[in-house]
UniProtKB/TrEMBL annotation:
Gene3D superfamilies per record: Dihydrodipicolinate Reductase, domain 2, NAD(P)-binding Rossmann-like Domain
InterPro entries referenced in this protein's UniProt entry, alphabetically: Gfo/Idh/MocA-like_OxRdtase_N, Gfo/Idh/MocA_Oxidoreductases, GFO_IDH_MocA-like_dom, NAD(P)-bd_dom_sf
Domain GFO/IDH/MocA-like oxidoreductase, first and last residues per copy: 131-267
Designated name of the protein: Gfo/Idh/MocA family oxidoreductase
Transmembrane regions: none
PANTHER family: BILIVERDIN REDUCTASE A, BLR3664 PROTEIN
Domain Gfo/Idh/MocA-like oxidoreductase N-terminal: 2-121
Length: 350
C-alpha cells in the first residue's frame, strides 16, 4: 500500500483526496495545511493526521509520494523539500508562480538526479480525448499540419469574482488562471510554441486584468494557430463544456473547442469528427470530403493521472508531464503576458 500525503486541501487538493480513496493500492496518510478551524474540521473527517509543515510531515509519516496542491506561491519550496527527501512528487499546475521559481525546481531535480520522480499536474494530458487526437494526427489522416484554432470562452458569474477578489487584479485574469491548461493541450497536440502575439480587452468587466484575449501562435514546426479566450463570453466553446470530463459543467456533445487542419483534412475536438480527402491525389476544394467520427470512451483524467502517479511510485513508468513540460507551459504563458503588455510578437524563451 502506497502512503500519500496531500499538501493543501483546497479545490484541487480535495479532488485528489477523493480519488486517492477510490484508487486501489493507495491510501491517504496525512494532510499538510495551515491550522485553521476549517482545515482541522475537514481533516478530522478524513481520520488522518494534519501537519502545518511539510518537512515535519515527511519526517514522521515517511510517505511514498506527495501531491502538492497548495497555493502556487508555495510550490517551489515544497517541491524542493520533497526532492531533498527523495520523495516522488506530483506538483499541481502551474509549476510555480514565475519562470525563475520554476527553473529552481527544474535545476534542483536535475542536480539530485530526480527528474524521473517529479511530475506536474496537467491532467488533460491523460485525457483519452487528447491521446486519441494525438494518435489521429500522428497517423497522417489529416496530412501535414497547417493550422489550429482554439477557444476557451465561458461566462463566469459575478460571485466568482466576489468570492475571489484577487481574480480581478494583477495576477488574476483568464490568461494566468485558464490559459495554462490550453497551452498544455496545444503543446501536446501540435508541438513547441515558438512565438506569440496578443490583443486583449477588459472592456466588459472593467477590471485591472483582461476578461478577453485573442492570441496568435507560431509553432516550431511551422503550424500557425489562433486562440480566443474569454471569461465573459457566454459560449459553449470551451474544454469544460465540450469534453464531458468534469460533471460540474453541463455538456454540449455537438460542440468543439479545437479545430486542427492539415493538408488532407480537419480534425475537430472533442467530437472527433474528421473531414478528409482520401489522398493528396484527390485533394481539392472542388471535391467533397470523406466525413466520419473517430469516437473514444471518455474517462476521468484526474483519476488516470493518479493511476499513473502510482505507476511512477512503483518505478514502472516515468512522468507523462515532466517538470520540464511544466516549465515550458509556464514559459509560454509568460510570453503571452509579455506580448499582451508589449503589443508585439514575442518569442517564447524556454
Amino acid at each position: 500500500m502506497l502512503n500519500i500525503v496531500v499538501v493543501g486541501p483546497g479545490l484541487m487538493g480535495k479532488q485528489h483526496i477523493e480519488r486517492i480513496e477510490a484508487t486501489s493500492g493507495m491510501v491517504l496518510s496525512a494532510v499538510v495545511a495551515p491550522a485553521s478551524s476549517v482545515n482541522r474540521d475537514y481533516v478530522a473527517r478524513l481520520n488522518v493526521p494534519m501537519f502545518s509543515d511539510l518537512g515535519r510531515c515527511i519526517e514522521f509519516q515517511k510517505p511514498d509520494g506527495v501531491i502538492i496542491a497548495s497555493p502556487n506561491k508555495f510550490h517551489t519550496e515544497q517541491a524542493i523539500v520533497c526532492i531533498k527527501h527523495d520523495i516522488p512528487v506530483l506538483i499541481e499546475k502551474p509549476l510555480a508562480t514565475c519562470l525563475k521559481e520554476g527553473r529552481r525546481i527544474v535545476d534542483f531535480a536535475k542536480e539530485r538526479d530526480f527528474v524521473h520522480k517529479v511530475m506536474v499536474g496537467h491532467h488533460r494530458a491523460y485525457s483519452p480525448l487528447i491521446q486519441h487526437a494525438c494518435r489521429i494526427i500522428e497517423s497522417g489522416r489529416v496530412g501535414s499540419l497547417v493550422t489550429v484554432q482554439g477557444s476557451a470562452q465561458f461566462y463566469k458569474p459575478e460571485c466568482y469574482f466576489v468570492e475571489g477578489e484577487w481574480r480581478t487584479r494583477l495576477g488574476g485574469g483568464p490568461i494566468l488562471i485558464n490559459m495554462i491548461h490550453e497551452v498544455g493541450n496545444l503543446r501536446k497536440l501540435i508541438g513547441e510554441i515558438e512565438s506569440v502575439q496578443v490583443i486583449s480587452s477588459s472592456e466588459r468587466r472593467g477590471y485591472e486584468v483582461e476578461d478577453t484575449a485573442v492570441m496568435n501562435f507560431r509553432f516550431e514546426n511551422g503550424v500557425l494557430g489562433s486562440f480566443v479566450l474569454s471569461d465573459t463570453a457566454a459560449s459553449t466553446q470551451s474544454w469544460e463544456l465540450t469534453s464531458a470530463e468534469n460533471p460540474s459543467y453541463p455538456h454540449y456533445a455537438e460542440e468543439n473547442c479545437y479545430s486542427i487542419s492539415g493538408t488532407l483534412g480537419t480534425l475537430d475536438i472533442p467530437t472527433m469528427n474528421i473531414k478528409a480527402y482520401a489522398s493528396s491525389d484527390t485533394a481539392s476544394w472542388m471535391e467533397a470530403f470523406d466525413e466520419y467520427d473517430a469516437p473514444v470512451d471518455r474517462q476521468d483524467p484526474l483519476l488516470l493521472q493518479l493511476e499513473h502517479f502510482k505507476q511512477m511510485l512503483n518505478g514502472d513508468e516515468g512522468p507523462v508531464v515532466s517538470v520540464w513540460d511544466g516549465y515550458c507551459n509556464l514559459a509560454v504563458v509568460e510570453a503571452i503576458k509579455q506580448a499582451e503588455e508589449s503589443g508585439c510578437l514575442e518569442r517564447v524563451v524556454y
